[in-house]
Amino acid sequence: MPNRKKSDFLKAPVEHIDIRRHNTVMLVEDMEKMAFSARELARAAGIYDAMLRDRKCSIFLCLAGSIFSAGLKKVVVEMVRNNMVDAIVSTGALMVDQDFFEALGFKHYIGTPYGVDDNELRSLHIDRIYDTFIDEDELRVVDETMREIADSLEPRPWSSREFIGEMGRWLAKNAKNRDSVVLAAYQKGVPIFVPAFSDCSAGFGMALHQHASPGRHMSLDSAKDFYELTKLKIEAGETGLFMIGGGAPKNFAQDTVVCADMLGFDTPMHKYAVQITVADARDGALSGSTLKEANSWGKVDTACEQMVFSEATLAVPLIAGYGYHKGGWKARKARNYAAFLEEAGQCAESCACGFGCK
Fold first, then answer.
1. Superfamily of domain 14-346
2. Phi-psi bin for 83: left (phi > 0), alpha (psi -120 to 50), beta?
3. Residues 6+ apart with CB under 8 A from 116
4. Spatial distance between the Cα atoms of 23 and 263, rounded to a whole number of angstroms
5. Distance of alpha carbon 226 from alpha carbon 71, whole angstroms
6. Residue 157 pairs with which residues in a beta bridge?
7. What are residue 76's phi and psi, to 5 degrees?
8. How far apart are CA 33 and CA 180, in angstroms?
9. What burial class does residue 91 get, using C-beta atoms within 10 Å of its C-beta: 0-12 exposed, 13-18 middle, 19+ buried?
10. Is 214 exposed, middle or buried (CB count within 10 Å of its CB: 0-12, 13-18, 19+)?
11. Cα(255)–Cα(227) distance, rounded to whole angstroms?
């Protein structure tokens, strides 16, 4: 076999599906008259539409899995831009290695898990995410940019929400591709939380930052993250969860109800909940644990909950597209919870309760 170059593999970019172009309302409503997964998906779409129409409800979007590399990034961008989500809890890989990566002008490429030698890919600095390829050398640019942002910050503990806000500020000036979740969220005041933030390029960049400045550096405060998201839940009151995948983002958002109770606030369970997952409930793992199970912990109300056992690239465009074309979001106003958290943080030190004054 002749020696191949990186360009032989990185040819066709992954294209992100645009929910504005595909009206899924009739399809989903016809699925409601079917059975099995089709009916469950239709019910989930109806619950998401109910969240959008409930003027008291704030929507938390939870994201896990490599869904942006797979072509779902623009779905979330449009959800943010059109007030279809009020806060995001995500993995670091999605926000940094995939979204910020593309905002720098880089791309994910259509690949294959079949007939390729991963040793050859490694020798060419190509990383594989199942059937997509990404340039490792370009990913290192993300690592260095994370270090650059960290170097510019005050040496104190930061929440991931604060740091991602700085990423959005940086993109507002420097983005080459402005279809970015981080940038759209910064512009709309939608806070993004990443409970395991060091598990991505941000972690590499911050490690480089701390290595170069051992006595004076910024750091991440995961407890501050959880406290901030709990503040947001207390402020919001009535909430709905739209969860793609599971893992830490799922539990992080659900646990705010319990934390609020422990802080002495009478905060309701999440009123609505939809989860799209391929995980199985039988092994007790978090990603597959049912929303009814979450009710036993006092986290999720069972009146309006639905599990959809489907791979995200199939289900998300149908459900999000249904919510978009039904138009319930048109009467929603931006919550700008990022500004609320900034104000709460600024006055918390002088507030007797420690929570922050309104």
1. Deoxyhypusine synthase (3.40.910.10)
2. left
3. 9, 128
4. 44
5. 29
6. 219
7. -70, -35
8. 36
9. buried
10. exposed
11. 11
- Give the pairing of strands 58-63 and 87-90: parallel
pLDDT bin (cut points 50, 70, 90) of residue 352 is: very low
* Mean pLDDT of the region 227-240: 97
Please state, in angstroms and rounded to a whole number, the distance separating the CA atoms of residues 168 and 175: 9
- Cα R_g (the chain), whole angstroms: 20
Catalytic-residue membership of 299: yes
Q: What is the pTM of this model?
A: 0.94
Pick from 203, 14, 178: which is nearest to 96 by CA? 203
Measure the CA–CA gap between 57 and 40, rounded to whole angstroms. Answer: 22
CA atoms within 13 Å, Cβ hemisphere of 234 = 22
In 3D space, the residue among 58, 134, 152, 151 whose CA is nearest the CA of residue 96 turns out to be 134
Residue 196 DSSP SS3: coil
Catalytic residue among 73, 188, 231, 299: 299
Residue 30 makes CB contacts below 8 A (sequence gap 6+) with none
For residues 78 and 104, the answer to whether their CB atoms sit within 8 Å is no
- Rounded to 5 degrees, φ, ψ at 274 are -130, 135
- Nearest CA-CA partner of 303 in 255, 264, 334, 271: 271
Tokens found for residue 232: 């947001």
* Residue spans per domain, the chain: 14-346
Q: How far is CA 256 from the centre of its chain?
A: 17
80-106 confidence digits (pLDDT tens): 999 999 999 999 999 999 999 999 999
β-pairing, 126-129 with 132-135?
antiparallel
Contact call for residues 98 and 68 (beta carbons, < 8 A)? yes
